Amino acid sequence: MGRRPPCCDKSHVKKGSWTAEEDAKILAYVASHGIGNWTLVPQKAGLNRCGKSCRLRWTNYLRPDLKHDSFTPHEEELILRYHQAIGSRWSLIAKQLPGRTDNDVKNHWNTKLKKKLSKMGIDPITHKPFGQLLSDYGNINDIIPQKTRSSDQRHHEPIDFSRAESSLTMIDPFQEQHATMNLITAHFQVINEAASSSTSSPESKVQVNLPSSPFIWSDYLVGDQEQECTNEPESGILPASGEHTTTCNGLVIDHKKDSLDVADTSVSFVESILNQDREIQFDFPQIFDGYSEY
DNA sequence: AAGGACACCAACCGCTGGATA
DNA sequence: TTATCCAGCGGTTGGTGTCCT
Fold this sequence. Notes:
By secondary structure, the protein is mostly helical. Among the domains are: 1-64, Homeodomain-like (Arc Repressor Mutant, subunit A), CATH 1.10.10.60; 203-288, no CATH class. It is built from twelve helices and two strands, in the order ααααααααααββαα. It has helices spanning 20-33, 41-45, 51-62, 73-86, 90-95, 102-119, 130-140, 144-155, 161-171, 173-198, 262-283, 285-288; strands at 245-248, 251-254. The longest helix is centred in the middle third of the chain and has 26 residues, at 173-198. It is elongated and about 60 Å long. The model is unreliable at 1-5, 144-266 and 283-294 (pLDDT under 50). It binds a DNA duplex through residues 1-7, 15-18, 37-39, 51-53, 55-57, 59-61, 88-91, 102-104, 106-108, 110-112, 115.
């Protein structure tokens, strides 16, 4: 069996900004042929570009369904909440924002939202106030050595935290400890979500445990929304059909069958992430050894 | 007016999983 | 079965415009 030819000769293709003429060629090609094998597009459209570059240009800029105006407060709030729930999975977040690409969301996060949070005293990784992280860091000192021991047994290479700390001190004690603490806290948060999801009851099939946080973005945008997750139906009575709504951090979760509204889409989207984490936990239980109590 | 700092974002880079020959 | 390619993804970079001193 033979090999496929390479998509392009990378040393001879054009790089950098796209011209209006190049854009027009892509648009004309897609209009007449549709979206298909991108490796053939440069040749058929008469472009001296890599197929991958053409695909990115189309995906991130030329697609007719894209919005090119600035992000609305509602979109910003959605980004913040999904980022709080699943982290930097930009493509998944972008799918919840019609007309936005993962690149758009990522850029907006890195240039605007992350800074806004930091200025408010909120850590953009954990979405917790810096002050709370510092106090958590004090508490975590009681936990880390114990976890380190179990890790040592697996890897036969004890981690010397005191040495790591001293090397960090030489750079910038506060920044480095803060960064390390963020990583640890974020890691525990993911593990905690996976562990808690594995114990959920069958009835709560569509239940979503978005992480609760002292910081709620909508506090700064709108007034008085729900700030806690409730697993009970708002009416207090769970109907036989199972159709009801709950709330979580202000997001109304509609537990309707075959519902295609935004809230339900959000639930299935977050739940698909949690399912992935459950599969990882099932396949690699040793990763979660000793952490499930968090 | 000049130039340095900063903000923005399009585009690229490198990695991964699935598809393919 | 295996090597390679493709598409998708997140992280990073570089060019350009704007603001500030």
